[in-house]
TrEMBL record:
Classification via InterPro entries: ACOT8-like_C, Acyl-CoA_hotdog, HotDog_dom_sf, TesB_ACOT8-like_N
Record-annotated Acyl-CoA thioesterase-like C-terminal domain positions: 153-244
SUPFAM superfamilies referenced in this protein's UniProt entry, alphabetically: Thioesterase/thiol ester dehydrase-isomerase
UniProt organism field: Nocardia aurea
Gene3D superfamilies hit by this protein: Acyl-CoA thioesterase, double hotdog domain
Name assigned to this protein: Acyl-CoA thioesterase domain-containing protein
Domain of life: Bacteria
Domain Acyl-CoA thioesterase-like N-terminal HotDog: 32-100
A Pfam entry, by short name: 4HBT_3
Length: 268
């Protein structure tokens, strides 16, 4: 079974998909965000949905068996909050907060909203079997070829993530969290590769995704003095469902040249 992690008792052991391209001794952001979301969603009350997930990625997570700790911060009638963290070597490596909101009826009246341009490849182009995502650069066609997409054009990606943990179905919240971390890749993959590493990821959701496909469209990049903020829209075949924001640091000395990647490799 293609997956990011296997279970070993109460611990999770990384498979190849969970290994970072920055270092074989570290775990990738999508995998880390996924396991934090997996733990946090156990605290989502009935009738609530996860509306925000913020992950602080202030230390690399080592490629060793890991456990996730969590606690409920608040459980109110309409708002619930939970925290989660991963500790290794006696130190917290990453932490996350999830905000869960109670669903309800829409208020009366109309408000302004943009008409989104959300390109989608034809159905059946991706499947949750570990294959890499598709990319669309500028007005080019969708392609899984990294070399073709290494340019300075606006990028959109289309994903169908495999299971996060072996023998567990991937939940919509886990899927959104994993794809959300790839915002750094979509926003900061340029003509010479990817030279920023994200220090956090914030995912906001008005609803959970439906189906097994998710799109991520780069919306804005604001950079100065080695710090860059990237924002993107998350959507599925039913339309937009949330936003993703990453704060990133220049990592030019270890820039990833994606033009050297094989088509079969996954970005993350």
């Amino acid at each position: 079974m293609v997956c990011f992690f296997a279970r070993d008792g109460d611990q999770l052991v990384a498979r190849e998909l969970a290994i970072s391209h920055w270092s074989a001794d570290q775990l990738s952001g999508p995998g880390v965000c996924g396991v934090l979301a997996r733990r946090l969603e156990t605290h989502c009350p009935d009738g609530f949905v996860p509306a925000r997930l913020t992950v602080d990625l202030f230390s690399p997570v080592s490629n060793v068996p890991l456990e996730v700790d969590s606690e409920i911060v608040r459980r109110g009638r309409r708002i619930a909050v939970a925290d989660a963290s991963i500790a290794q070597g006696g130190k917290t490596r990453v932490r996350a907060t999830a905000v869960f909101l109670a669903t309800g009826t829409e208020p009366p009246g109309r408000v302004w909203s943009p008409t989104p341009d959300l390109p989608m490849p034809p159905p059946g182009c991706v499947s949750p079997n570990g294959a890499p995502p598709l990319f669309k650069s500028g007005d080019r066609d969708w392609s899984g070829d990294f070399t073709v997409n290494q340019n300075a054009d606006r990028k959109i990606s289309w994903h169908a993530m495999p299971a996060l943990v072996e023998d567990e179905p991937l939940t919509p919240f886990q899927h959104a969290a994993m794809v959300g971390d790839t915002t750094n890749h979509i926003c900061h993959w340029g003509s010479e590769g990817a030279g920023y590493i994200n220090a956090d990821m914030t995912l906001t959701l008005a609803r959970l995704p439906t189906g097994f496909e998710l799109g991520l469209r780069a919306d804005n990049i604001i950079a100065a003095d080695g710090i860059s903020i990237g924002t993107a829209t998350l959507y599925d075949r039913a339309g937009q469902l949330g936003t993703c924001v990453v704060s990133t640091l220049s990592n030019a000395r270890r820039q990833i040249d994606y033009s050297r990647f094989r088509v079969s490799e996954r970005a993350g």
